[in-house]
């Protein structure tokens, strides 16, 4: 492990672009140091990532991690909540993974999520009204706080049956969860509070099922092996966390990309380039997941002469993978909706754990973005792009805020 130079990630992500460039220029497998001085491997190239993401020798069970077994990494590690997230489809592999995942994946196929279109459209309209009210008389308004953040939370809540009255509390808890500035004791308390919310919700649905996906998960038979309460809670937590945090990023970065490229925006608005392309190019150029944590090698894995030793951890650096020139050509670091399509990115992952919510997030973005630009044709950034800051957490490519002017 000590053989190659190590890129230490900045815990506060003050230069995400610079770090991504260094990874893109480096070898397909690179040593990085996660905040808290935790060394892991990361894969930074499209082809190698696809191979590793279908390699059954890499698993998500934290007990396979040498640093965890030896007590070097403990619950005091600031990123522990990203890896030790309870038993769910996010943390289990093989046949058990299929058992945990199938019901959820089937509920949100491309065909099924189409039925959510009217709900998403009405949430979008309501939030555009809120945005108009906030940004009247040309004052700057935070597009993230007022539009991009509440929208996916409302949608995933509708799907899972989360009470809208909980939204403010959930936003406050996730803000603390996804920030390195939160002291660890506080983060552990936040994780415990999130657990309480979801445990209580599963108990309530058990007593009185509704027509939401949480109830469906409770009632699912799964070939005679229904999910345990712990597994339903784990899946629910994963769905709510993944279903909103990533889509916020997708919406914000699509807006940012378009506002910084007025000629491209004009062609999209003229109908020459479909919104679908905007969404796919955004996912490639600015993947919502920066570094996805973490898989563990159950035996030594040789990747073209570089060995991930048994017990070592591997991250997937989707930001760098989206900029792989081998896959996407030179200038892959640029947002360009005119590049040859289809854009074959893997920002939703690849293999058995590929994002089950991909269709839902695509639908949300394809509804939200055209509606936003139709309602506010003169939308512009209220600050220089260089002033936009990332959330202080290495795993998420998400802006702290996105100040815009509506007119
Ligand atoms: C957050 C904490 C939690 O309660 C459950 C999960 C499981 C799903 C994870 C989520 C986590 C963090 C954000 C992730 C998401 C799956 C996809 C999402 C990693 C650990 C991405 O950012 C791509």
UniProtKB/TrEMBL annotation:
One of its GO terms (molecular function) is oxidoreductase activity, acting on paired donors, with incorporation or reduction of molecular oxygen. The keyword Translocase does not apply. It holds the Pfam family p450. Keywords: Heme, Iron, Metal-binding, Monooxygenase, Oxidoreductase. PANTHER family: CYTOCHROME P450 YJIB-RELATED (PTHR46696:SF1), P450, PUTATIVE (EUROFUNG)-RELATED (PTHR46696). Belongs to the cytochrome P450 family. This is Cytochrome P450. It comes from Streptomyces radicis.
């Amino acid at each position: 492990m000590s053989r190659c130079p190590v890129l230490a990630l900045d815990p506060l992500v003050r230069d995400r672009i610079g770090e991504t460039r260094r990874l893109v220029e480096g070898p397909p497998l690179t040593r990085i140091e996660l905040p808290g001085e935790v060394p892991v491997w990361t894969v930074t190239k499209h082809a190698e990532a696809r191979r590793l993401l279908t390699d059954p020798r890499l698993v998500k069970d934290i007990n396979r991690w040498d640093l965890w077994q030896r007590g070097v990494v403990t619950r005091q590690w600031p990123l522990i909540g990203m890896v030790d997230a309870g038993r769910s489809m996010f943390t289990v592999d093989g046949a058990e993974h299929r058992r945990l995942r199938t019901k959820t994946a089937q509920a949100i196929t491309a065909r099924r999520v189409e039925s959510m279109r009217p709900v998403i459209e009405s949430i979008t309209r309501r939030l555009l009204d809120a945005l108009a009210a906030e940004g009247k008389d040309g004052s700057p308004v935070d597009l993230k706080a007022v539009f991009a953040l509440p929208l996916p939370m409302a949608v995933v809540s509708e799907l899972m049956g989360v009470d809208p009255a909980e939204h403010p509390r959930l936003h406050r808890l996730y803000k603390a969860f996804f920030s390195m500035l939160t002291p660890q004791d506080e983060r552990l308390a936040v994780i415990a509070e999130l657990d309480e919310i979801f445990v209580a919700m599963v108990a309530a649905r058990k007593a009185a099922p509704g027509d939401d996906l949480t109830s469906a998960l409770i009632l699912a038979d799964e070939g005679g092996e229904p999910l345990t309460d712990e597994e339903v809670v784990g899946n629910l937590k994963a769905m709510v966390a993944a279903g909103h945090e990533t889509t916020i990023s997708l919406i914000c970065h699509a807006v940012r990309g378009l506002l910084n490229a007025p000629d491209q925006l004009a062609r999209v608005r003229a109908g020459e380039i479909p919104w679908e392309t905007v969404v796919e190019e955004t996912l490639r150029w600015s993947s919502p997941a920066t570094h996805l944590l973490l898989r563990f090698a159950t035996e030594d894995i040789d990747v073209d002469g570089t060995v991930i030793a048994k017990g070592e951890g591997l991250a997937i650096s989707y930001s760098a993978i989206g900029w792989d020139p081998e896959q996407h050509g030179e200038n892959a670091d640029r947002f360009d909706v005119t590049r040859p399509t289809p854009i074959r990115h893997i920002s939703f992952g690849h293999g058995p754990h590929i994002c089950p919510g991909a269709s839902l997030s695509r639908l949300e973005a394809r509804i939200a973005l055209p509606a936003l630009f139709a309602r506010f044709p003169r939308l512009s950034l209220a600050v220089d792009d260089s002033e936009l800051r990332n959330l202080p957490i290495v795993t998420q490519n998400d802006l702290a805020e996105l100040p815009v002017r509506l007119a």
